[in-house]
Amino acid sequence: MLGRNRFSETQPTVEILKILINETQIGLGIDRLAAQLKEHYKDQPLTIVSIMTGSLVMLADLIRLLEMPVRISLIQATSYRGGTKSGDLIIHDHMMLDIKDRDVLLIDDIFDTGKTLVQVTKRLNDMGPKSIKTAVFLNKQGQSTVTAVPDFVVFEIPNEFVVGYGLDYEDLYRNMPYVGVLEESDLKNHVAT
Ligand code: IMP
Ligand code: MG
């Protein structure tokens, strides 16, 4: 696999991760999502709000498959886990476009407890959009602490810590082209930068 070899040559911090979703599967998954969005929005203009940094890779792949007029807006959400209280979320919206009376699709890398998506949706709702739907690349099974569910999910995954395709551990591994499970044994190879 070209992608995998390329990665391990340039980033020797991870020897081999257990691959959960490979590049081909990811491509097919993003194709499926694009088809669902075309079906839902038809030719209507769409504003995609992408939660940084995790949804960056999905954003780049997805928008190139969409044919309706698309505006892209970035928002950053940082949760402090293991630090203060879990679930404390800081939202930076200085790169937001005006979304008043717009159809908005909020995208994130993973729906874990669901707190990030719920809190960012609430913030966007205050900006007066015409509609808001949510799409996540991964939905982690059995972890949600909220009643809301994402409108579109590319892949359901078990309760494991995953990295790659935008998802990080300590800000690394986002550029891996596949989704891998970061297991305890992988952490001995993890070199903090
Ligand atoms: P939530 O608010 O608990 O749904 O968490 C969402 C955020 O937690 C995501 O945007 C990720 O940054 C992070 N996260 C949760 N699970 C994972 C994982 O398995 N790998 C990497 N990041 C994760
Ligand atoms: Mg993260």
List keywords for this structure.
single chain, Rossmann fold, 3-stranded antiparallel sheet, 9 strands, alpha/beta, 193 residues
3D architecture notes:
This protein has 193 residues and is of the alpha/beta class. It has a domain at 23-157: Rossmann fold, CATH 3.40.50. The protein has helices at residues 2-10, 23-41, 56-63, 115-125, and strands at 18-21, 46-52, 70-79, 89-92, 103-111, 131-140, 152-157, 162-163, 179-181. A six-stranded mixed sheet has the order 4-3-2-5-6-7, with helices on both faces. The protein has a three-stranded antiparallel sheet with strand order 1-9-8. The longest helix is centred in the first third of the chain and has 19 residues, at 23-41. The chain is globular. Bound molecules: inosinic acid (IMP) and magnesium ion.
Short description:
This protein is an alpha/beta fold and 193 residues long. The chain has four helices and nine strands.
Individual helix count: 4
CATH architecture assignment of the domain at 23-157: 3-Layer(aba) Sandwich
Helix and strand string, N-terminal first? HEHEHEEEHEEEE
The CATH topology of the domain at 23-157 corresponds to Rossmann fold
Calculate the mean pLDDT score and round it.
89
Uncertain regions: pLDDT < 50 for 5+ in a row? 1-5
What portion of the residues fall into strands of 2 or more residues? 25-35%
What general outline do the C-alpha atoms trace? Answer: globular
Read across the widest sheet, the strand sequence of neighbours is 4-3-2-5-6-7
| Main CATH class of the domain at 23-157 | Alpha Beta
